[in-house]
Structure formats: C-alpha cells, structure tokens
Amino acid sequence: MSKARDAEIRLPGIKPRNWGLEKRATGRVSYPFQKMLVGDFFVVYSVTEARGVRSALQSFYSRHAGRRFSVRQRADGEWVCRRIA
User: Fold this and answer.
1) Does residue 39 come out as left (phi exceeding 0), alpha (psi in the -120 to 50 range) or beta?
2) CA-CA distance, 5 to 60, in Å (whole number)?
3) Could you tell me what percent of the chain has a pLDDT over 70?
4) Handedness of CA 54, 48, 82, 8 (dihedral sign)
5) Residue 67 exposure: Cα atoms within 13 Å on the Cβ side
6) Could you tell me which residues come within 8 angstroms of residue 9 by beta carbon, excluding any fewer than 6 positions away?
7) 21-50, pLDDT tens digit by residue?
C-alpha cells in the first residue's frame, strides 16, 4: 500500500481501538487525540472533515510534543486519523 493510503499499524499484543467522535452542544466536534494510544484510530467521512482534523492536530501538537498522527484516505474513500507515535 502506498504512503498516500492508510495502513494499519500492527503491534504485538495490542489491538487498535476505533474511537468515536463526540459532538458538543455548541456544534463543535471533540476529537479523542489525548486518549489515543499508538495504533488507535477514528474515521471521518469527507475531505472537509479530514481538513478539520488536520487543523485540530496542528493546535494539539503545540501542547503535546512527541505524539504524532496521520490523516490518510482508505481505499474505500473514508478518511482515517491514526496515532503513529
């Protein structure tokens, strides 16, 4: 699979968790970045949502050094945000 597509991370003894997104009363989306372990992921369904995730990650990186995520498209067209480090 090319780097442009999402690929599952396989770690011995660790099963990746599929996190859900929470929508707040204000209409904003709450992303589970802080709770995620390496290999965990969540799915978004449009390019616009993927851009929103990338934007939120830029803010998250400034406060949480060392954690890294990838936002890539699956073969079926869905977008996956996965913690990679």
Assistant:
1) left
2) 23
3) 92
4) negative
5) 20
6) 16, 38, 39, 82, 84
7) 999 999 889 999 999 999 999 999 999 999
Give backbone dihedrals phi and psi of 18, rounded to 5 degrees, phi first. -90, 105
CB 83 within 8 A of CB 41: yes
Mean pLDDT on 48-58: 95
Q: Which letter does DSSP use for residue 4 in this model?
A: T
DSSP states of 43-79: EE-SHHHHHHHHHHHHHHHHHSTT--EEEEE-TTS-E
Q: Which two tokens stand for residue 49?
A: 């949502």
- Are 11 and 38 a contacting pair, CB within 8 Å? yes
Would you say the C-alpha torsion 27, 67, 18, 9 has a positive or negative sign?
positive
The two three-digit tokens of residue 55, written as one number: 């934007």
